[in-house]
Amino acid sequence: MLIRKPSDIPSSEITSKSDYMNRRQFMAGAAAVGASALGAARLVSPHQSVNADTSASAKLTTVPSPLSTAGITPTSFKDITTYNNFYEFGTDKSDPAKNAWRLKTRPWTIAIEGNVKEEKTFDIDALMKLHPIEERIYRHRCVEAWSMVIPWDGYSLSEFIKACKPLSTAKYVQFLSLEDIGEEPWIRESSLHWPYSEGLRMDEAMHPLTLLTFGLYGQTLPNQDGAPVRVVLPWKYGFKSAKSIVKIRFVENQPRTTWNESAPKEYGFYSNVNPNVDHPRWSQKTERVIGAPFWKASQPTLMFNGYGDQVASLYKGMDLRTNF
Ligand code: MTE
Q: Does ligand 1 come within 6 angstroms of the Cβ of 175?
């Protein structure tokens, strides 16, 4: 677990961080009015580490999953939590691990909207109890041609979708991430259109491999990996996996997606891992394996990231060059 010690924090950050925590402390204090004697509100002592409040990892009780990919060794926890894409916390791969301490993951709710029997809001803690949490080791392939192997903890998104009772008019699912200038000031520096949005066709969202994810390595998600809840789609490029989700919308038409909107010729709606369709600026034939010794540092990209037996039928009859 990445806990930043005061000595790791550059002095330039200290003032802003303490100001920020004072503000949070004030807010927590206000919320404490009327809270139970057990101290339901999370008052932060000035001496307490920031992570202890905002991203303390909790151990998860998990069950093994038949959908876990056997025979592959997971990437180290350190690499998974220090080499990230999470533009709300900066554009460099090392930024999210440094900056995502600002993300406040409780209280947290997910709003369900659109073509559903009844629009409602789920609390994250209730959501985590909706179904047993499974450990699933999945290959993780980024469009930038690097890969990892991650032991995620979650359950099939389909279990949650059933609880949302979508109408037959719901053809797509849209995921919207948190957009909060206070906690994520880096969004101001980016030209992307916020909040981060991703989408799936309904049958992709209902596929048993699509994971509603709460943790990795048996612990709640570190903030930089998308706490407290994200989706994971092991046969698609990583940008389809929206992090820190606050809203799920069931819609009739293909929803806007952040990267497709920003560079439509480079990032398609489907973004299935495909060694035969290059990114306009680089090849997808091979991938760099993060954390591997140099003699294993590159490997061939697998069609659908190795999950073709399970997902190829979703795209039967489709031209995967035009629907990239
Ligand atoms: N979700 C949000 N909200 N913001 C982001 O910038 N980046 C995406 C995706 N989900 C992103 C996001 C990209 S480009 C990738 S490759 C994966 O998250 C990275 O997930 P990881 O950092 O856990 O490897």
A: no
